[in-house]
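Fold this complex.
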Amino acid sequence: MKKKYLSYLLLMIVAGLWSCKSEDSVFEQTADERINESLAAYQKELAEAPYGWKGIIYPGTGGVFSFYFKFNEQNRVVMYSDFAAESAVTPKESSYRLKSIETPSLIFDTYSYLHVLADPDGNINGGVTGDGLKSDFEFSFAKDTLDDGVINLTGVKNQSRLILTKATQEESVAYAGGGVGKSLLFNNIAKYLTYFKRITIGAVQYEVTFNTTGRTIKLNWLDGTTLKTFTTEYYYGPSGIVFITPLVNGSQTITGFTDLTWNATNLSVGLTAAGVKTTVVAAAKPLQPDVAAPRRWWNYASSKGSYWVSETGFTVEGKEDFFGVTSIPNYAYMLFFPAIAASSGTTYDAFAAYDGTALMGPAVVPSFKTDGRVTFADFGTYGTNTLMNGKVKAQVEEVNGYYLVQTSDITYDMVSAKDGKTWITWLYPWN
Amino acid sequence: MKLKITFNYLFLLLVLSVFTSSCKEDKLQDVENISGLGGETWAQSTIDKYISDSLTTPFNIAMKYKWDQYEFSDVTATLVPAKEEQIIPISQAIRRSWINPFVAQAGLVFFNKYSPKIFVLSGSAQFQYESKILGSAEGGRKIVLMEVNELRLRGMTNYVASRDSNNVKEFIRTIQHEFGHILHQNILYPVEFKTVGKGLYQGQNWLNISEAEARHDGFISQYASSGFDDDWVETIAYMLIEGKGGWDKIINSIPAGNSINGTSQATAQAILRRKEALVVNYFKTAWGIDFYSLQKRTRAAVVSLI
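Structure:
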């Protein structure tokens, strides 16, 4: 009898201890309380920065863009953007809110400069129709510690990275004073009459090339006789161009270009780099010709039994389609067809225009020089078009020939060795 | 049988009661703490006040312009929010070209009963393969209007009639089109309508025919040729937006000769006139609405916006 009661008693004690999970959770607060607190803390952080925030964003299709944000407690935000000349200097207000969608998030919820990157209308940002630049305007907060002046955000749709850094008073004054607009003056480098450009910084002469769509800049320099090259992404900040990766060349560190100026009369861009004030100067020749490039270019198409294509033909002193080839009836493109045929034992190339039916213009025989130039000697003509057989033929067969600059796996620029003021861009579109 | 209340029995009860009561349930926490429950809040602006005064209070219509990806049926679509400066002009256009004519013609009770309660705005169109989606409706409750950032109305500083008037008409037509669906989903349109254009419908191929080709087959628009329902509401929408004069002009402009599908000019015109008659009769018998009067009011409003 006693044993039975004892066992029941034991059962009760065990039941009392086991049937309850511990009520204490890891957190003192509920999930909702924590979310609300988190949102409130982020809101405070964003709105209380006295001089606003600088932001850089990396959208899905590449490049890096810079913004300025000034948030207030009434869900309003004012922005500047380096996307275009107008957005660089004209502040624009829109709205934002914080919300918990799975994680605490920052939503820019009415259209602003930031949305220009994400707009699926390719006409607005130069991106692909339906995708835009694959950017974002809804972001989730990374698990940052607040108060260290940097907020890391990840785009919800395309995982674009947006990094906010507290702006200083000096920076906010620079934005309001049109600082980004001044930085954009760098783009006037495209107006130089020559293909090649150089900057001398201290004892080093750099050759500079840049791509304003991809927002990359490339600097070449000679170390003895060796050509060194450096490429970085960049954006337009309130004080100048900012390199994402600084160039460290011995004792010289270049973090970007500041104090940009543009002289439209002289066609001259001025800037300061590594503390040195300098100007971008036109150059007639490359710093060091890519000696193997002409053969490489020629062989690439020849090995595939195919040809290079140029949409607009020759650019002269910055003027695209200088000779007017695109106005030839049914003009498709200009082409360079290596070893297109042979005559009397001599293989020749076609450097001509194509209208869908026939070729027009010169047939040539190339000569590859040891200094990296290629020249084209007259061999004959296709068709009877007076433009192609006259002015264009004269340009093609210009005695000084051309340097070749490879700009990607399938693109080359062919630059006149006479003065660097005439060039043609070749594309291999058949892969 | 008398229940023996023994010590055993009591003890057993005690054990059972300990089992069942030893766990408190988690109390439901304060519901007000749940983030976003009951709708999000933000500092109210002039725009919010306008929407409240002009749409929500009189017609119980909400205008959602602040971005919310989940309001779009395809949450993966790449879209952007509306520009703030568009919201009030768009709301005014909606009142003028859709709400006011229907309320004036059919009364507030009718309108409030059948009108969709939520408008959702997207700044951009939804790009899809070879076409753009400009609007959609969901279950009679919600209308999504897209590409509102490209809408320029008469009166805006950057309005250019030759470039922008078609966009305005398309915008209003979208709303009328969707409202047309709501009405016929409540009261079916006449069965005869399905026989008027029989054999000429394009289905999915509607994207590949031109407006002129569609009209030469007795469809007011390419989209109308895609199927019965859209044919019905496109007919309504065009009649209202173009007005009697514009509608007559379209029909009279169908060229002589046969369409690609062998429809003669006379047949195409007769088809459109029959569709017109069925629409007018439907509105009278189903809803008690004088359609030509509604048309006059709507057209006058459209003219003021283009």
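Chain B touches chain A through 38 residues (CB under 8 Å).
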